[in-house]
Each structure stands twice: as structure tokens, then as C-alpha cells.
């Protein structure tokens, strides 16, 4: 049928979409670049960001996890306070808003009902909204004041991969554009850095055998799994755990390394798989300490680090990229490991049970 043709030589859409990520990064660079090689973004969006005293990011699922990274990017680069919220909570449990809020809706499909419910309320209150979506003309795009497109191409697999990295890339571009609008001097060219990311992603896409081995060794028979990290790595761990849950049905948790000792470490037994991310220089020592703590309690540990921070025994060393953009490359092994774990467990990778690609009911 038609879907087989689109899959090409790939056994699953998910694997195809993981592999498309370097191309998506390059596509985003082209779409957000003018003739002079500078950033190209809507003047209205720049003005809205400049005008905002606080940004509220609203999203669900994987898009929410991209929003957490986006919060860090906008705060660090553009110096605007940002809150990231789960749409289904925000709508019934709204925090006190700032004087001049700007709402950013992140949604691959642009059709998620939970997010739309917030947008309806935000408009009723008279606030401005920007939608970041992969589907131009979608409901969330039409109903918001502004739209930024992801240019990731159709995402078919229920588990989101290339939309997540596209969302983070576009959020980085938005953050830099906003910083420039506010006259902040930056030593960070997002288009150049995204080109480096695309190359790094390609390197990782060529390491499928190692990812398959890790999946087989750590996740083929286990009942549960933990992903630990600190700072930006923590956000990626949340996404890694969600990916694994969605397609392999392994009970997985993403955890902040330092928070483990406050409860969750009680779950570590002999052989519990713990996958740790170590891409953040300022917390490298402390996450290494957390790995030792869980290993001492019997955990079976796998460390994924970044070039320059690696230690002997690390299973994957990611190519070095700009510290702002590490989630774009650190998530890739996580996506592949989840994919192979699901294969080993005979799960329906592209259409996991109980899930829908786009949830249009609240
Ligand atoms: C569904 C999908 C998730 C997705 C979430 C948000 O639950 O299964 O993969 O992250 O919706 O979707 P959106 O289209 O709003 O990004």
C-alpha cells in the first residue's frame, strides 16, 4: 500500500524519521536563513518576543519535553523568563500570569485538544500566542497570532523523533533572534552550530549496531529502566524514558541525578538498567557520582557522554557540539536504543498500543 512506498527501504517509519534528522536540521537552516546567511524571522514575532515580560510554553508529551529545553534556551540566550507547562494541567490550574505574557504552543500536529483548550482560554484573556508546529494550516496555527514551521516533513510513527529535534532547533533560532532584538551580544551563531549538529547526527545514525547492542544488553528482558542526567541532560532523560515507555512498554523513568537519593534510588536492584547522560561540563562530576551510587547498589550502568567529558568505559561518546544544543544529539542514541529495545520485544514500533499520533480529545 501507499505507506509501504513512503517507507522506502526502511522497516519502520520511526527508523526512517530518526535517520531524517540531519536532513531536517539542514532544511531548518535553509528555511530560517536570508540571502546574506543571516537569520530570517517574522518581524511580528520578533516584536512579540521583545515585548514579552515572560514566556509561557504550553505543550503535551514529547513537545512538552522540547519545551523544557526551549525554556532553558530562551532564558539563557534571550534573558526572558520562561515557564513550561503541560497543557492539560495549565488549563485547569493556571498560574498567576505576568503583566505582558506571550504564549508559545509547541505541537507537532497542531491539533492536540489539550493544547487547544489553553489557546482558547489565552485568547479569551486577550493574550498573544505563537504556535510552533510541523503542520502549517493546522488548528493551533490558524488560531494563534503567529506561527513558526518546523519543516520536518510528515511524521508518521506515533513516537515522535524528528519533530522533537526540529522543535528544539527552531526554539534556538527564536531565542537568538529575540536576543538580537533586545541588543544582547552573542557568541553563538545558531545556523552554523546547527550545521555542526547535522553532521554529528549523521555520525550517530551510522552507529546503529552499537545502539542495537546496548538495547539488547540492557533492555531486552528488563521490567524497568532508569535514565539519569542533570541540567539539559535531565530534560533529555525525560524524553528518553517516554520514548522507551511508548514503544517497548518497559516501565521507564527519567530522573534528575541529584534527586535519586531522595527516594527513587530505593528501586535500584541487582541488574536494574540505568542509562546516564553526561554532556554537561558543569555537572559532569556530580552525574558521575550518581552513576557510582547506583552501580554500588547493583545497577547495570551505561554512560553516554560527550567528547571532552568522556571517561573510560563510557558506551557512547557523542561528537562535541555547542553546549546550548546538546539535546539535539544526545537524544538520538536514546531514540535508537528505544527503537531496538521495542524490536527485541516484538512490539509494534510504529503503532504502539493505546496511543494515537494526535490526540484530538481532552
Ligand atoms: C500524542 C502523541 C505524542 C505527542 C503528543 C503531543 O500523545 O502520541 O507523541 O508528543 O500527542 O502531540 P503534538 O502533536 O501536540 O506535538
Automatic annotation (TrEMBL):
Primary localization: cytoplasm
Catalytic activity reported: D-fructose 6-phosphate + L-glutamine = D-glucosamine 6-phosphate + L-glutamate
Any one GO cellular component localisation term in the record: cytosol
A single GO BP: UDP-N-acetylglucosamine metabolic process
Record keywords, A-Z: Aminotransferase, Cytoplasm, Glutamine amidotransferase, Repeat, Transferase
GO molecular function, one term: carbohydrate derivative binding
Transmembrane segments: none
Compartments where found: Cytoplasm
Active site: 357
Enzyme class, broadest EC rank: transferase
Listed EC numbers: 2.6.1.16
Record note on quaternary structure: Homodimer.
Function, as annotated: Catalyzes the first step in hexosamine metabolism, converting fructose-6P into glucosamine-6P using glutamine as a nitrogen source.
Protein name from the UniProt record: Glutamine--fructose-6-phosphate aminotransferase [isomerizing]
This protein's encoding gene: glmS
Amino acid at each position: 500500500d501507499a505507506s509501504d512506498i513512503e517507507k522506502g527501504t526502511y522497516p519502520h517509519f520511526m527508523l526512517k524519521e530518526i535517520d531524517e534528522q540531519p536532513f531536517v536540521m539542514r532544511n531548518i537552516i535553509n528555511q530560517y536563513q536570508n540571502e546574506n546567511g543571516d537569520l530570517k524571522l517574522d518581524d511580528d514575532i520578533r516584536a512579540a518576543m521583545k515585548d514579552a515580560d515572560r514566556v509561557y510554553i504550553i505543550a503535551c508529551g514529547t513537545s512538552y519535553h522540547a519545551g523544557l529545553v526551549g525554556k532553558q534556551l530562551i532564558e539563557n540566550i534571550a534573558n526572558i523568563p520562561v515557564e513550561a507547562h503541560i497543557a492539560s494541567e495549565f488549563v485547569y490550574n493556571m498560574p498567576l500570569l505576568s503583566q505582558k505574557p506571550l504564549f508559545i504552543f509547541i505541537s507537532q500536529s497542531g491539533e492536540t485538544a489539550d493544547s487547544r483548550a489553553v489557546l482558547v482560554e489565552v485568547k479569551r484573556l486577550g493574550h498573544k500566542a505563537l504556535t510552533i508546529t510541523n503542520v502549517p494550516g493546522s488548528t493551533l496555527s490558524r488560531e494563534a497570532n503567529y506561527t513558526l514551521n518546523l519543516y520536518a516533513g510528515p511524521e508518521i510513527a506515533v513516537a515522535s523523533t524528528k519533530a522533537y529535534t526540529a522543535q528544539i532547533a527552531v526554539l534556538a533560532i527564536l531565542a537568538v533572534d529575540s536576543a538580537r532584538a533586545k541588543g544582547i551580544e552573542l557568541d553563538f551563531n545558531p545556523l552554523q552550530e546547527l550545521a555542526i549538529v547535522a553532521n554529528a547526527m549523521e555520525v550517530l545514525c551510522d552507529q546503529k549496531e552499537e545502539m542495537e547492542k546496548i538495547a539488547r544488553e540492557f533492555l531486552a528482558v528488563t521490567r524497568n529502566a532508569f535514565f539519569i542526567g542533570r541540567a539539559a541532560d535531565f530534560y533529555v532523560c525525560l524524553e528518553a524514558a517516554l520514548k522507551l515507555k511508548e514503544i517497548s512498554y518497559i516501565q521507564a523513568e527519567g530522573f534528575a541525578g541529584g534527586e535519586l537519593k531522595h527516594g527513587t534510588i530505593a528501586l535500584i536492584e541487582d541488574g536494574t538498567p540505568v542509562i546516564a547522560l553526561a554532556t554537561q561540563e558543569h555537572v559532569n562530576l556530580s552525574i558521575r557520582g550518581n552513576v557510582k551510587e547506583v552501580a554500588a547498589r547493583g545497577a547495570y550502568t551505561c554512560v553516554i557522554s560527550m567528547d571532552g567529558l568522556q571517561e573510560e568505559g563510557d558506551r557512547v561518546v557523542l561528537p562535541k557540539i555547542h553546549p546550548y544544543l546538546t539535546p539535539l544529539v544526545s537524544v538520538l542514541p536514546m531514540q535508537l536504543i528505544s527503537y531496538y529495545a521495542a524490536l527485541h520485544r516484538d512490539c509494534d514500533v510504529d503503532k504502539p498500543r493505546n496511543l494515537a499520533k494526535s490526540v484530538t480529545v481532552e
